[in-house]
Amino acid sequence: MTNHSTNPVIVKLRRLEITNFKAINHFVMDFPQPNMADEPDIFAMGSQNGVGKTSILEAISVLIWGIFSSVKEMELKSDHPPPLSELLVRAGAEFALIQSLLFVNNKIYEYSIKVLLSGSIIINNDNMKECFPSEIIPLLRSLKKFFSSFLGYDTEPVILPYCLYFHSYRKVAEGNLEMGMLINGSKATEASKISVFKQTVLYALMNQANLFDVPDQSLSANVVDKLNSLIHFYADGKIDKLRPYADNTLEFRISPTHGGPSYSFDGLSSGQKEIISTLFLIWYYTHDQPRIVLIDEPELHLNLEWHRHFVQQLVKLVPENQYILATHSEDVFDSVDQDRRILLQRDQPSS
Predict the structure, then answer these.
(1) What global pTM score does this model have?
(2) Minimum mean pLDDT among 21-35, 137-151, 172-186, 230-244: which range?
(3) Which residues touch 123 (CB under 8 Å, ≥6 apart)?
(4) Per-residue pLDDT tens for 269-278?
(5) Helical spans, DSSP H, in the chain
(6) Which whole-number Å values give the CA distances from 285 to 2, 162, 268, in the listed order?
(7) How many Å apart are CA 134 and CA 141, to the nearest integer?
(8) Which domain holds residue 276?
(9) What is the CATH number of the domain that holds 202?
(10) Number of domains in the chain
(11) Residue 53: other Cβ atoms inside 10 A
């Protein structure tokens, strides 16, 4: 669920330095503050394939993940060969280093993570502990779950306190949700091949119907209203029905705006599912707690018309977030102000 703090902690990335991480030898980038208070905090990176855009986003997600670690050093373990350290450290190097300047409620902090080829990760976050409520720490997903999403074994986006990372292999998992998973949302989000998007929507629909005894009924109504505004815009319909099946699963159904039989959300095109789920999850996780939102290839599955207004939709949806995009789309790139975008060259982060 979202963090409903009355005094949210605002985290912004202002400088990033990467050494020997994945495809990157050495790379430094500043993410400037907007010139005016009402301007969006958004930055776009464009380039050809193989230059390092994705590695930059991955480095940022590793950086934010490490803020909330309760230990200084840990071993990187994986169920999948090769070892995680070999996937993160540039070939021929002994370590990878990610350094940053973070603004936390407008106070500057230096913070870094070092990954050793030998298999350890060293986290220098001592001066960050004062910034965050202690209850945030247990919300951090396990190391195994984080790197499962990060490395592409899981098609779900990476959801962290203060950061969302929508990687380029994301996909809304098809299929229905088991009713038993609604009893314990954490089991649903930890299970493989379970869509966080669908689980969130179904839970909100059940709450709105007063079928669950939960303390925040108003939030559920807001969730369904926001979802249906997106479905109306992109699919000319709304969700107002659930269909149960004999195998104890549920699906939610879309009713066309102008009448006709309802149909499954899975019946939408890949582009419709992608843009609805991405925008909805961004709103759901950030509307009362702004985060750093990383999106690799926001144009994924989208038609050219949607490329042109995607950035506008983002900043309209939650203008308080910091958005960092990596794109191949000229329309997405050009929709960001010239002083807030960069075209990466092969002699910068090399691969």
Answers:
(1) 0.89
(2) 137-151
(3) 66, 69, 71, 72, 73, 74, 113
(4) 989 999 999 9
(5) 53-67, 84-88, 143-150, 185-190, 196-208, 217-235, 270-286, 304-317, 330-334
(6) 5, 9, 23
(7) 15
(8) 11-343
(9) 3.40.50.300
(10) 1
(11) 25
